[in-house]
Amino acid sequence: MSNPFTFKQFPLIKTERYTLRAAEEKDAHDLYELYSNEAVVEFMPFTPFESVKDAMDEMSWYAKIFREQTGLRWMIEDGEARKVIGTCGFLSREEVHNRAEIGYDLHPAFWGKGVMSEVARAVLNFGFMDLQLNKIEAKVEPQNQASIRLLHKLGFQQEGLLRQHEFEKGRYIDLAVFSKLRSEL
Ligand SMILES: CC(C)(COP(=O)(O)OP(=O)(O)OC[C@H]1O[C@@H](n2cnc3c(N)ncnc32)[C@H](O)[C@@H]1OP(=O)(O)O)[C@@H](O)C(=O)NCCC(=O)NCCS
């Protein structure tokens, strides 16, 4: 059976308002703008980017997970703003279990407008239908109310709480684990 995750070309997704596509060199500045924002990285495992070079390193990671077929990270391109306003995609894919984790982030100028609801819904559909994933997970800091609200809205259920699971920014943090199954689509 052919493996549905095996892509030679990065898959393009169009939603009503956005184009989801692979990262390109020209996106480095937009990604720097995104990840140098303190509010964006507050609940992420890294401190704000300090240079465009950090954004290029991030893009190298996107390319690596694609090459290894362990993930896909789409750039969210806003045609009106003519820029990349956020990202969304899969990581930590485990082939034998048909399982992957979803991750997402958006520039604060676009928060609260239903952007990620629209984008993540399309990405989830792609994961379950095209990639034939059986389970999609999300790990979130319990204080990240926006992300938790989004997950509930997308039909995710909380499975539990990983206590003091990671050491980040000088402290141990808990991570709430959420998931959605293919049968729950
Ligand atoms: C999480 C994030 C992607 C949400 O994106 P968004 O486009 O603003 O989300 P939406 O507008 O689609 O909103 C989804 C739901 O969350 C709610 N929501 C959005 N921001 C919220 C906030 N700060 N507090 C509580 N609820 C919030 C919305 O009201 C909506 O629910 P509703 O339809 O019932 O009203 C965005 O806040 C973000 O980029 N945060 C920083 C990066 C991050 O934390 N990523 C996740 C790491 S696990």
Helix-strand layout with pairing:
Elements: E1 13-14, E2 18-21, H1 28-35, H2 38-41, H3 52-67, E3 72-78, E4 83-94, E5 99-106, H4 115-130, E6 135-140, H5 145-153, E7 157-168, E8 171-181
Parallel strand pairs: 5-6
Antiparallel strand pairs: 1-2, 2-3, 3-4, 4-5, 6-8, 7-8
Helix pairs in contact: 1-3
The chain binds coenzyme A.
Coenzyme A (COA) binds next to β5, α4 and α5.
Walk me through this protein's architecture.
- The chain has 185 residues and is an alpha+beta fold.
- It has a domain of 125 residues: 3-Layer(aba) Sandwich (Aminopeptidase).
- Helices cover 29% and strands 34% of the residues.
- The protein has 5 helices and 8 strands; from the N terminus they run ββαααβββαβαββ.
- Strands 1-2-3-4-5-6-8-7 form an 8-stranded mixed beta sheet, sandwiched between helices.
- A hairpin with a 3-residue loop joins strand 1 and strand 2.
- Helix 1 crosses helix 3.
- The longest helix is centred in the N-terminal third of the chain and has 16 residues.
- The protein is globular and about 40 Å long.
- The model has no long low-confidence stretch (mean pLDDT 96).
- Bound molecules: coenzyme A (COA).
- Coenzyme A binds next to strand 5, helix 4 and helix 5.
Strand runs, count:
8
Give the overall silhouette: globular
Q: Can you list the strand order of the major beta sheet?
A: 1-2-3-4-5-6-8-7
Measured distance between first and last alpha carbons: 24 Å
Structural class: alpha+beta
**What is the makeup of the main sheet?**
8 strands, mixed
Query: Could you give the order of the helices and strands?
Result: EEHHHEEEHEHEE
Q: Segments where pLDDT lies below 50 for 5+ residues?
A: none
Identify the CATH homologous superfamily of the domain at 13-137: Gcn5-related N-acetyltransferase (GNAT)
Mean pLDDT: 96
Total helix count?
A: 5
Enter the CATH topology name of the domain at 13-137: Aminopeptidase
